[in-house]
């Protein structure tokens, strides 16, 4: 599903905020409460973010569903417990409009 997300990138001891209106996300909300099946993704979210000049994403960065607030120095989870932490980030640049970041976060 296409959605707006906010990326928090560590920059010189602070968090640089970037709002990205055109990400695709499978945003998992945590454990399955219905009891109908066993989760195999352990609550991991997958995001596909179109490449753009100057955008950097690395493990340890944060992502938030929607347009998030500016955040000062300190732990991301202390600022907002809904922020997911990036566990993997890979850039795919085949040289076409399909250039994108593939990001996993928990």
Explain this structure.
This protein is mainly beta. Helix content is 4%, strand content 45%. The chain has one helix and six strands; from the N terminus they run ββββαββ. The radius of gyration is 14 Å and the shape is globular.
Rough shape?
Answer: globular
Mean pLDDT across residues: 85
Task: Note poorly predicted spans.
Answer: 31-40
For the terminal residues, how far apart are their CA atoms?
Answer: 18 Å
Helix content percent band: under 10%
- SS element count, helices: 1
> Could you give a short account of the major beta sheet?
6 strands, antiparallel, barrel
The total strand number stands at 6
Series of H and E elements: EEEEHEE
**Estimated radius of gyration:** 14 Å
Structural category is mainly beta
Strand order of the largest sheet: 1-2-3-6-5-4
Share of residues in strands: over 45%
TL;DR?
The chain has 106 residues and is mostly beta strands.
Features of the shown structure:
106 residues; globular; six-stranded antiparallel β-barrel; mainly beta; 1 helix
Topology:
Layout: E1 2-11, E2 14-26, E3 45-50, E4 62-65, H1 76-79, E5 84-92, E6 100-105
Antiparallel strand pairs: 1-2, 1-4, 2-3, 3-6, 4-5, 5-6
């Amino acid at each position: 599903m296409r959605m707006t997300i906010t990326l928090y990138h560590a920059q010189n001891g602070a968090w640089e905020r970037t709002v990205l209106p055109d990400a695709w996300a499978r945003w998992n909300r945590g454990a399955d409460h219905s009891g109908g099946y066993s989760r195999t993704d352990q609550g991991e979210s997958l995001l596909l973010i179109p490449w753009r000049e100057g955008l950097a994403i690395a493990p340890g960065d944060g992502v938030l569903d929607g347009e998030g607030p500016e955040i000062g120095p300190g732990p991301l989870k202390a600022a907002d417990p809904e922020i997911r932490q990036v566990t993997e980030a890979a850039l795919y640049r085949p040289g076409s409009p399909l250039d994108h970041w593939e990001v996993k976060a928990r």
